[in-house]
Amino acid sequence: MHVLIIDHDHHSLQKICDFLRDKGFKCSGQTSPVAAVFAFAFDGEPFDAVITWHEMIGMNGMDILRVLTSIDQELPVIMHAEEITQGLSWEFTQHGGFSLIKEDEFMDQILPALGMAETGLHSTASEELLLAVAGS
Predict the structure, then answer these.
(1) Cβ(52)–Cβ(6) under 8 Å?
(2) Digitized pLDDT (tens) for each residue of the chain, 136 residues in all
(3) Contact at 8 Å (CB) between 3 and 39?
(4) Whole-prediction pTM value?
(5) Distance from C-alpha of 114 to C-alpha of 74, rounded to nearest angstrom
């Protein structure tokens, strides 16, 4: 499985790529959201999933999600964020996001999310969070 990682922090990007490579994934990383979208659209080898950080300057994770899912509606886009609000969860779900993960749970949740992406199962974490927030 070939995964595109988008994170403006080079150290975080390298840490995620190293972790995924150790688990057998092929990983490509971009610190620039614009370069990442370009690589996704024009790289000769397709990506099977995308992992993006939400809080970035210029294009944030939601901007990236909207662009990439306009190119490929079936693409699993996984986004991690410092804080997941009801609004972010709703918007993420509405734009076809696959899995929304809170930053402090990211390293524990990324492999299960990629496993679901690889098997074609859709993550319901965003929907569950939305229901939990709405119920409180």
Answers:
(1) yes
(2) 999 999 999 999 999 999 999 999 999 999 999 999 998 988 778 899 999 999 988 889 999 999 999 989 899 999 999 999 999 999 999 999 999 999 999 999 999 999 988 887 655 444 444 444 444 4
(3) no
(4) 0.85
(5) 14
Amino acid residing at 55: E
Token pair for residue 65? Answer: 């999600």
Give, in order, the Cα–Cα distances in Å from 90 to each of 64, 77, 96, 105: 16, 15, 10, 19
Using alpha carbons, list the distances in angstroms from residue 109 to 33, 39, 51, 66, 133: 23, 25, 12, 23, 20
